[in-house]
Amino acid sequence: TLASAAAGQSAGSEPAGPGEEAGAGQQCPGPARLARLPLARVKALVKADPDVTLASQEAVFVLARATELFVETIAKDAYVYAQQGKRKTLQRKDLDNAIEAIDEFAFLEGKFLLGFSWFQYFL
């Protein structure tokens, strides 16, 4: 399943469902959630779209995981620009530089709204 693929489990192991501990029964350094974003909030955002009538738990999980991977990727790329400025804290200009320099983020050019925070939806 998608959940087991996201967790990196082999085909012979029992897949963990969304929100369950990955590798339960195996030796792990600690409990690990497959998705770090709150799935209820992700589902609420999906349902806020008037074109969406139903969203399965698996679809919500895949959207949450894809969002996490996207945020991780853009943050790592933006951090390079923060380091060039001898900073450890990401600033808006670091994200803007990453978006401008990296082809994969071209779809975001000119899309950021001033004062808009995506994180307000996850509080």
From TrEMBL:
<feature type="region of interest" description="Disordered">
    <location>
        <begin position="1"/>
        <end position="30"/>
    </location>
</feature>
<dbReference type="GO" id="GO:0140672">
    <property type="term" value="C:ATAC complex"/>
</dbReference>
<feature type="domain" description="Transcription factor CBF/NF-Y/archaeal histone">
    <location>
        <begin position="35"/>
        <end position="99"/>
    </location>
</feature>
<dbReference type="GO" id="GO:0003677">
    <property type="term" value="F:DNA binding"/>
</dbReference>
<feature type="compositionally biased region" description="Low complexity">
    <location>
        <begin position="1"/>
        <end position="25"/>
    </location>
</feature>
<dbReference type="Pfam" id="PF00808">
    <property type="entry name" value="CBFD_NFYB_HMF"/>
</dbReference>
<dbReference type="GO" id="GO:0046982">
    <property type="term" value="F:protein heterodimerization activity"/>
</dbReference>
<dbReference type="GO" id="GO:0008622">
    <property type="term" value="C:epsilon DNA polymerase complex"/>
</dbReference>
<keyword id="KW-0238">DNA-binding</keyword>
<dbReference type="GO" id="GO:0005654">
    <property type="term" value="C:nucleoplasm"/>
</dbReference>
<comment type="function">
    <text>Accessory component of the DNA polymerase epsilon complex. Participates in DNA repair and in chromosomal DNA replication.</text>
</comment>
<dbReference type="InterPro" id="IPR009072">
    <property type="entry name" value="Histone-fold"/>
</dbReference>
<dbReference type="InterPro" id="IPR003958">
    <property type="entry name" value="CBFA_NFYB_domain"/>
</dbReference>
<dbReference type="InterPro" id="IPR050568">
    <property type="entry name" value="Transcr_DNA_Rep_Reg"/>
</dbReference>
<keyword id="KW-0539">Nucleus</keyword>
<comment type="subunit">
    <text>Component of the DNA polymerase epsilon complex consisting of four subunits: the catalytic subunit POLE and the accessory subunits POLE2, POLE3 and POLE4. Interaction with POLE3 is a prerequisite for further binding with POLE and POLE2.</text>
</comment>
<dbReference type="GO" id="GO:0006261">
    <property type="term" value="P:DNA-templated DNA replication"/>
</dbReference>
<protein>
    <recommendedName>
        <fullName>DNA polymerase epsilon subunit 4</fullName>
    </recommendedName>
</protein>
